[in-house]
Amino acid sequence: MAFATDLLVFSPQDIDLSHSPLRASIRAETYVLGAFNPGLARLPNGNLLIMIRVAEALNQPIVGEQIHTIRWEENQGYVLDAYPLSGVNAADPRKFQVLGYPYKVMALTSLSWLLPVELTPDGTQVVTIHYDKIIAPQRTYQEYGVEDARITKIEETYYMTTCSVSSERHSTTLYTSTDGLNYALQGIILDHQNKDMVLFEGRINGKFYALTRPLGDLYFAARPGSDHFPGPAIHLASSPDALHWKPADVPMIQARKGSASTMKIGGGTQPIRTDQGWLLLYHGVELRGLVGIYRTFWALLDADDPTKILKLEDTQPILEANPDLVEPIKDQLYLSDVVFTTGIVDAGDHYIVASGEDDLACRITHIPKNLFRLSPAESTTN
Predict the structure, then answer these.
(1) Domains of the chain (ranges plus CATH)?
(2) Residue-wise pLDDT tens digits, 24-78
(3) 3-state SS assignment for residue 132
(4) Which of 42, 247, 288, 362 lies deepest, with the highest CB count within 10 Å?
(5) Are 362 and 344 in contact (CB under 8 A)?
(6) What share of the chain is helix, strand, coil (3-state, %, to 5)?
(7) What does DSSP say about strands 272-274 and 293-301: parallel, antiparallel, or unpaired?
(8) CA neighbours within 13 Å on the CB side: how many for 239?
(9) Is 193 left (phi over 0), alpha (psi -120 to 50) or beta?
């Protein structure tokens, strides 16, 4: 689907790595593997903020017979750890598996930190790169980085969820801000391997609600004849304070047979209130190759009961990866067929949507609101 405004607004070459937090203690040369998956919010001054995941990697991770990963260590800063090449599987460019354990153990080829970038109100031009407000690891549960911010403004507070990565746990952490630019870490709010947590943009009956996505290497078979595949799915949770979360007892959005999302699905944008219910954009992954094909789909949830799905569009994607956008920087590509949508704001007759493109750059798309409507028949049914 083509849109009049659809562009890459920020790419790896736009980053000055002299400002990187790694410069404090890493002497080895690094580069920006990707500047992608941006959280999106409207600032009080009317400009937009994208909170970009910067994946910073070693220029030469392999030296001799060893491969290296970057790790943050309390009281020492950033250090390099070496693993023998004979003891790893490095087929995935984003990570490598450390062999010899009775369970899967991974190490990353990069360390991620978050960079706030201010854009014009329409999201098409950079105004300021806020290097002074970088968010980097500061607790041991973030030793391998901070990833994939999602920002939701509820009343006068900006709530930002991130994935914190460490050998301790792979957790969801919460940051809060009163101005959208300066964030304070509130700690872990979801424990091991629960990714893509996104808060609804508003409370429902006084409670906070959020989409979650628990992960694991083990799933149980669906009943014979089920319309759904077992595997990673979008779930719902509620909270009295945004810190303590109760999972819903009923399933939410699952990978459905006959759809384009046969591998896994997960939350994308913060659910926003419309006159027909809560609108959310999410990613669905088709099984193909090592990583799969990531596309963006959408759903509408009931305004008062978000467990009730009014419409699920999981066959025709609203966004797909666009090779034309990355053509000028195609020499930096290490993945393809990936669009990972991470933020949305209201802009009158359209929405401004932020995505990561091919785990490389930040994409801004203006999508007309009339594409996210219930049909008259669906309205009557619901």
Answers:
(1) 6-381 (2.115.10.20)
(2) 899 899 999 999 999 999 999 999 999 999 999 999 999 999 999 999 999 999 9
(3) helix
(4) 362
(5) no
(6) 10, 50, 40
(7) unpaired
(8) 19
(9) left
